[in-house]
Amino acid sequence: MFNPADLPDTLAVFPLPGALLLPRSRLPLHIFEPRYLAMLDDALKTPGRLIGMVQPNKVPGRDGTGLQMIGCAGRVTQFSETEDHRYLITLTGTSRFRIVKEMDGFQSYRRCEVNWDGFARDLGPEEQDREFNREAFMDLLSRYFSSRDLSTDWQTLQDADDELLINSLSMLLEFPYEDKQALLEAPSLATRRETLITLIEFALRGGAGEDLLQ
């Protein structure tokens, strides 16, 4: 658990379209580009071992790609090196942040000045969603998986806590990166669940056009 005082003012950021990290969730990554190997090496030398995951946007920026204003920092909690000197790592989501500005420097990777205000809840215990209708949600999810010929361990989903279920699906399901950003920026677990339902319903409406979750 981090305290607000432990969070740095600057952060290495990893712009990766579609790769969503949420607080208290885990994101596996395969690191192989030289600049991101350097980023990882530098992060491991710091007490927090934090890397900021952020979605790119269409506004030009450094390296020709802009960055969304809100990302999520993750602590490197697992890593292993392959025989060809690549890394398999796991980031555990710590807190969302807001980018103040991108910094110039000699590093090959990108660094930003960041602000953590407004995201104190991310540092607390897992959230509850007391209005979550799990039965109706699982029915909707089943129709979504069937429409895309996807399979999963349904018992694991049934047994998962609300936050783990909603956040894991938000991270794993394939949506455009703008929609991933909306899931990231949701101010609460309930809002994220509502956003996720809307995205699933929209995807189904484009296919079978059946009655959807109310």
UniProtKB/TrEMBL annotation:
Entry's EC annotation: 3.4.21.53
The entry's keywords = Hydrolase, Protease
The keyword Protease is annotated on this UniProt entry:
yes
Tell me the GO molecular function terms.
serine-type endopeptidase activity
Q: Where is the Lon N-terminal domain?
A: 11-204
What's the superkingdom here?
A: Bacteria
Kindly give the PROSITE patterns that the UniProt entry links to this protein: LON_N
Per UniProt, the enzyme's principal EC class comes to hydrolase
InterPro entries assigned to the protein according to its UniProt record, in alphabetical order? Lon_prtase_N, Lon_prtase_N_sf, PUA-like_sf
Pfam families on file: LON_substr_bdg
Gene Ontology biological-process annotations = proteolysis
Q: Does this UniProt record's set of keywords contain Amino-acid biosynthesis?
A: no
Q: Which PANTHER family does the entry mention?
A: ATP-DEPENDENT PROTEASE LA (LON) DOMAIN PROTEIN
Protein's recorded name: Lon protease 2
Q: Which gene encodes it?
A: lon2
